[in-house]
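BUG: 3D viewer hangs when loading the predicted structure for this chain

Environment: internal workstation, default settings.
Expected: structure renders.
Actual: progress bar stalls at 90%.

Input used:
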Amino acid sequence: MTTTTRSTTYKATGTPRRLVHHNFFVGSISKTMDFYNQVLGIEETFRIANRGAGFLSNGNTHHDLGFVEVSEVTRHRGEEAHAKGIKEVPLDYGTKPGLNHFAYEMYNEAELVTAYDRISEFGVKPWLLEDRIVTRSVYFSDSEGNGIEYTVDMLSNWRDYRKPGASISQRDYVPGKETPSTASFVNLNPEIRRVESGALHAKKSAHCMLVARDFSKLRRFYIDVVGLRELYVSPGGEFSLLHGKDFPGYSMALVAQGSNRPAGVGQICFELASAEDFAGAEKRLAAKGVKLELRIEHPKKQVLRFRDPDGTQVQCYVEAPDFLDAVKTMDPALALQLV
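Structure tokens produced before the viewer hung:
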């Protein structure tokens, strides 16, 4: 992979490039890791035994998925955040399985620092700033308590550092203390690996769905504060599709709360490597102990939906190149089944 460096006239906007991984608190790290390895066909890259954490990747980056087992350590995270005056973090944060954070990839460190400056201007306080050699990260929460990470790769050879049995070196990170680098280590041609024993074969972590208690307020948060760009908002305000820059598709479907749609994480979504996975999918999933809850065969998008061991809804799909154009003419109820 070639590392590129922008010129000295490069002006960072602080816009995330894409959603790069999902990270959840889970009841059993071993059960969850096995599920995503054998059901979605995503390769395990490394675990941190003393922190009850595990990570999987299909090759796009060092992890498309991260998990932390609920423990006495995680159960104090909400209290620690409140002690720092960060009230956006729920007091029960980390006490049970559920979202830890959604991570958004930055093209380079200059973008990360600019994004950090922007959230600071909006009065948002990060609850963690870390330098892990491979990455530098800023963690904060949205206005409804959902965790967000800005992350940037600082090395190209992540497989040398993120491998089974690897230890994690970390230190505090002070954004802007040093002149931020404009070098980018984003791999534009990654090696996508395939777990042949998987029931399905995910190409990448594609996007997430968040259900908002206050749709208008949370929509403005993700546009103004997080820095995502809006591709489409439905005329009736049922949902918004948001994305980053220089990357196709959308990173988030933000949806208004409804009687059958409680606030919080609606689903996490994975693009499949091929439509061939749809043939016999229900039988293969059943063989892994997974019940298929929804299957949609639409001309513009094929969808499979089921739940992971902690009840998080998982969507796997393939879609036509013009799917987003088609969404704009769909009935919102149908669109919400597909996004």
